[in-house]
Specification:
alpha/beta; 5-stranded mixed beta barrel; 8 helices; 33% helix; Rossmann fold; 232 residues
């Protein structure tokens, strides 16, 4: 067992879906996985393993933000041998054409976090998606007529900005949306030579002010989860 995951060896699959919300992990396991069993309850950060179309897959809540996400990713990789880490989360749109319930696949992740500036003084590391997972996600989406957008996203350290209009600087550079974990996920995957992909559903828009309800977020997240599960 690791410090934050009380799973026995062999109970976690090589492919793990990573929602920030532990209750979304529970919903994914109960909705999509067969014969799912809960392997983790430490700090209420639920983890489950089951099967999807005959393939073994796990889902693990990570909490919000890069620091929390890195704790779980580090332990999954180093203690449980996980090879494929797939974030499934929500994001806020920075672009007029990126609308509610759109699916965004993060090709790269800009960030306001100092995680990589501390690692590379006077240099800028660019966290990027694993190409093979990205390609498979695109192929599945095209085959199943699921519209997706792909590009640069922002992983922010601050949820409530002091200056709301700051998002326009990122928008002007083509950043599609904002969330809080992907840059950390892509960086730790690169460090340990494993695969990572972040798939996001737009839950609100900083451009229009629109928001989805909790019920809408649950039902509209299904296509994103299906894409992620196909990667197993």
């Amino acid at each position: 067992m690791s410090l934050h995951i009380n799973a026995k060896q062999g109970t976690i699959a090589e492919t793990v879906l990573l929602p920030g919300d532990p209750m979304r992990a529970k919903w994914i396991a109960e909705t999509f996985l067969e014969q799912s069993e809960c392997y983790n309850t430490v700090r209420g950060m639920y983890g489950y393993t089951g099967t999807y179309q005959g393939k073994r897959i796990s889902v693990q809540g990570t909490g919000m933000g890069i620091p929390s996400t890195l704790i779980y990713c580090h332990e999954l990789i180093t203690q449980y041998g996980v090879k494929n880490l797939i974030r499934v989360g929500s994001a806020g749109s920075y672009q007029q054409e990126v609308t509610l319930r759109d699916i965004v696949i993060a090709m790269a992740a800009s960030t306001t976090s100092s995680i990589n500036s501390n690692r590379f003084p006077n240099a800028y590391y660019a966290p990027t998606a694993n190409f093979e997972l990205f390609q498979k996600a695109l192929q599945y989406a095209q085959k199943n007529d699921i519209a997706i957008k792909a590009g640069n996203v922002l992983s922010a350290d601050v949820f409530y900005e002091d200056q709301f209009e700051n998002y326009k600087k990122w928008s002007a550079m083509g950043v599609l949306c904002v969330e809080m974990e992907t840059a950390g996920l892509y960086s730790i995957a690169a460090k340990h030579n494993v695969n990572a992909l972040s798939i996001l559903t737009i839950s609100d828009s900083l451009v229009t002010g629109e928001q989805t309800t909790a019920q809408e977020r649950e039902s509209s997240f299904k296509p994103m989860i299906e894409i992620a599960l196909s990667l197993a």
